[in-house]
Amino acid sequence: MIIEEEKNKSGQGAASNHRASFVIAVAGNPNAGKSTLINAMAGARLQVGNWPGVTVEKKSAEFEYEGRRIILVDLPGTYSLSPYSQEEVIARDYLVHERPDVIINVVDATNLERNLYFTLQLLELEIPLIVALNMYDEAGQKGFRIDTAKMASMLGCAVVPTVATRREGVDRLIETAVEFAESSNRREMMAVSYGEDIEKAVRSIVEDMKQHGAELVNHGPSRWQALKIIETDEIVLDEMGISADDNFLKQATHHLSKAHGEDLETLLADTRYALAAGLTREALKKPETRKRELTERIDAIVLNRYLGIPIFLFFMWLIFKLTFDIAGPFTEWFDAVISGPLTHWSAAVMTLAGAPDWAISLVTEGVIAGVGAVLIFLPPIFAMMFFITFLEGSGYMARAAFVMDRMMHAIGLHGKSFIPLLLGFGCNVPAVYATRTLENPRDKALTALLIPLMSCGARLPVYLLFVGVFFSAYAGTVLWSLYILGIILAVMVGWIFKKTLFRGEAPVFIMELPPYRMPTMTSLLIHTWEKGKHYLIKAGTFILAITICIWFGLNLPWGVESKRDSYLGHIGQAAAPVFAPLGFGTWEAASSLITGVIAKEIVVSTMGEVYTPKDGDDKEKNAPSVSEELKQIGVSFVGAVGKAVGNVFSTFGIATISMEEEEGTESLKTAIKKNFTPLSAYAFMAFVLLYVPCFIVLVAMRHEFGTWKWAGVTIAYQSVLAWTVSFIIYQGGTLIGIG
Amino acid sequence: MLPLAFLKEDEVAEIVESPHRYGYGHQYRHGAWKFRNGVDQLDCCRKRKHSDDHLLNIGLRPGKYVRMISNSGAGPLVLLIDECRIALGRGIAMKIYVRRIEA
Ligand SMILES: Nc1nc2c(ncn2[C@@H]2O[C@H](COP(=O)(O)OP(=O)(O)O)[C@@H](O)[C@H]2O)c(=O)[nH]1
Ligand SMILES: [Mg+2]
Predict the structure, then answer these.
(1) Ligand 1 pocket check: which of A36, A58, A394, A516 to mutate, most ligand atoms within 8 Å of Cβ?
(2) Ligand 1: distance of its center to the CA of A115 in Å?
(3) How far does Cα A725 stand from its chain's mean position?
């Protein structure tokens, strides 16, 4: 083993100089705790989850440390510097091209050997490196004893034990990182020695590169480049403008290939692994016998061949049930507040201020009815996000992928593709980006095409509205059935795509299953908020703007008698016949669906506006006093809390949302009850589930694939699918007499 | 020697051969870097070997001891390597050869 001296970056004279700002990259294997560690260091709120592939984009967080600005860069998890999936490419490119001032390599202490294999590759980048020996608590629980001093001296870099979730060791880590960034002392880092033959070849390639000069710089240190050339690493060759059968390359590796066979890459990897294994043997003491851990006991049940899928379906059902039970009462309360007091207070205030009638109507019938209709569903959306966050944090996510692997094979994908699909239940947009964890472009495109069939949170308001009106007795189950309908159709559509657009084998399924972990309440709440806040922001900006447009659509040409004769009314009437065979051929439904193309919540906000009776001033009869109403709001909120708690603890299957005959506040629900039957309501919900993804998803697809092609395919197949399925539901239901 | 997929639950084995030594991986090696620059290159399929091997990187390499945690005879299986649980598709598990170790 030769010890190579780290070359210092240019221009740092003194032994230690205070720098105004510097960049620390945090790299390591997936699920080692990188994002958690950054959150602990910088007080950031980067997304954390207990499954490989949470971070697919490099994210950064900044913090102040004794007068310095420190930028932490969170990289997607990587197993190696020769990337395999797209998110690994992101990490690799950053480290090689941007060259951060310091690397913090997060190492999972329970899995030293494989993590050190990556550490050895990082060391070759010749950037000051600190090992954060994370999950130190779990290693302790397993009875591992790690000699960190020995590790540090062998690796020639600092090793700091940390427990990111409890902030242990974090301060020392920051101190060490600052010291490393600022000291210009030469550090002796370990370099793997690959044997005399290869080292000789490395030296000669380095010489050659020096003569070639300029065009080869800035793609990593020369020794590293030379090694990659020997490995015929395609990316490096590409960056250096060398083709694999270049003479230069042939010459350099000729005698090596002769001596060691073609596969030099494996030879180098083996050397690194041998060294990583040696380091691990030296530094780690394992207990004699291995305990059977909780994770294994849970897995024995959850991954069981027969129980796996039923258990998964049960968990899904439980999520919808709980979402409804907990959030339902709050939605009712919120609804009552918005459509009651809030509406006539703002009307009263505006009248006092002398606002014209049309402005009052714009605010009450447009903004409050429209945005309000979306806002009242924030409680269930947040509840749902909470449960999805829990699934991610517990480690069950990766198990769901495993359990669904066989079903996914039917559609030419493997289990890993199921994770983006499952995430789609929260929001389709991050789900599209999550396809980056898939290694194969074909899988990625096929998965992205199926994502819009996963019912996202924005569709929830539509379901909740209709379920509340027609199916309150078995709300959770009806809701669940819609999500399952989405999954089943995804399988069917996927199968058709596999036979047509995406021929070929399902790729190899390899995925790590992390241990189960109990997510902490604070981290659950933070990440629920991070996910859910987008709905709030969207409601306050995008949806607000659209509802105003819709109000104009419903009130122009100026002075129309009824909304039916407005512009939007006319459009709705023109489109209505298309929907007639599906059971909802009214202009109201048609115009809601049309505006809902922009975002699915808008279906509900349009309905809120469309079904608000024009000239609702008869409501203003002897309004109660403000203080009385405030008291009423408080009392009903307490009631809602009680009801939510009661729902959770009462046996499953209890009726939760009941149509309470409150005066006035229920105008939207009453209107819907008049205009739909249970059957057409279900057909309508299915239609909303299936028809074109929202605009933002289309943009995300374009962004991920660099072409509108897949977005176009999605629009086309989904329109056909939605119409067909709703048709079958409505006509089939009518035939057998459910209508 | 037997394919990894034939190992029963709770059996321990040493990996003897793993496909990366035999130029395996036409389809799954190249995946990563075709998406560089965010360009959709779905239809192009460069017939070159990707310079690394995921199996190896994830820790599945000859000489390692593995324990079968879950193997139901069909569908994917779960292995324990050191402290790490790895789910593997059956197809690839048929191509990895192991030697049983008596417990
Ligand atoms: N017990 C324990 N769990 C940790 C520690 N650090 C992170 N975790 C958990 O490990 C999981 C993965 O963390 P994350 O930061 O998303 O990993 P990343 O993929 O490397 O960014 C999460 O469930 C964390 O709560 C630690 O030091 N000890
Ligand atoms: Mg992360």
Answers:
(1) A36
(2) 15
(3) 28
Single out the residue in A162, A191, A220 at which a domain terminates: A191
The residue whose two tokens read 């409505």 is: A730
CA of A52, closest atom in ligand 1: 19
Which of A228, A303, A441 has its CB closest to that of B41?
A: A441
Tell me how far apart the alpha carbons of residues B19 and B22 are, in angstroms, rounded to a whole number: 6
Same domain, B39 and B54: yes
Does residue B66 sit in the same domain as residue B99? yes
Task: Compare CB distances from B58 to A79, A89, A440 and report the shortest one's residue.
Answer: A79
List CB contacts (< 8 A) between B61 and chain A: 270, 273
Q: How far apart are CA B77 and CA A403, in angstroms?
A: 10
Q: Residue type at A664?
A: G
Domain with B29, as residue range(s), is 21-58
Indicate which CATH number applies to the domain containing A57: 3.40.50.300
A504 touches B: beta carbon within 8 Å = yes
Do B66 and B96 belong to one domain? Answer: yes
Contact of A511 with A398, CB cutoff 8 Å: yes
Ligand nearest to the CA of A160: 1
| Chain B contacts in chain A segment 368-407 (CB below 8 A) | 398, 401-402, 405-406
Do A165 and A203 lie in a common domain?
Answer: no
Is the Cβ pair A510, B39 closer than 8 Å? no
Q: In this structure, are B71 and B53 located in the same domain? A: no
Nearest to A331 by CA among A656, A648, A703, A704: A656
Same domain, B38 and B74: no
Chain A residue with minimum CA distance to B86: A512
Contact between A513 and A53 (Cβ < 8 Å): no
Say yes or no: B73 and B103 in one domain.
yes
ipTM for this model = 0.79
Report which ligand 1 atom has the smallest distance to the Cα of A163: 27
- CATH number for A264: 1.10.287.1770
B9 and B32 in a single domain? The answer is no
Q: Which residues on adjacent β-strands are paired with residue A59?
A: A74
How many domains does chain A contain in total?
A: 2
Same domain (yes/no): A124, A248? no
Domain boundary among A285, A318, A352: A285
Residue of B57, B72, B85 lying closest to A513 (CB–CB): B85
Q: How far is CA A168 from CA A24, A37, A157, A196, A245, in A?
A: 19, 10, 20, 43, 51
B65 and B54 co-located in one domain: no
Distance from the alpha carbon of residue A26 to the mean position of ligand 1, in angstroms:
13
Six token digits for residue A272: 């690194």
Segment A51-93, tens digit of pLDDT: 677 777 788 888 998 888 999 999 999 998 887 777 888 898 8
Q: What is the pLDDT of residue A661?
A: 40
A173 and A205 co-located in one domain? no
**Six-digit token string for A270:** 């083996």
Q: A178 lies in which domain range?
A: 2-191
Among A680, A675, A689, A684, smallest CA distance to A731 is for: A680
Q: Is the pTM of this model over 0.95?
A: no
Give chain B's radius of gyration (CA, Å): 15
Kindly report, residue by residue over A451-508, the tens digit of the pLDDT: 999 988 888 888 888 988 898 888 878 888 998 899 899 989 988 888 888 777 667 7
Same domain, A11 and A102: yes
**A33 domain residue, yes or no:** yes
Report the chain A residue with the minimal C-alpha distance to residue B46.
A234
Query: Please, how many CA atoms are within 13 Å of residue A414, restricted to the half-sphere of its CB?
Result: 25
Residue A226 lies in a domain: yes
A661 DSSP assignment: -
CA of A233, closest CA in chain B: separation in Å?
5
Helices (H) and strands (E) in chain A, counts: 34, 11
Q: Is the alpha carbon torsion for A179, A33, A54, A277 positive or negative?
A: positive
In a domain? residue A653? no
Asked if A705 lies within 8 A of B38 by C-beta distance, the reply is yes
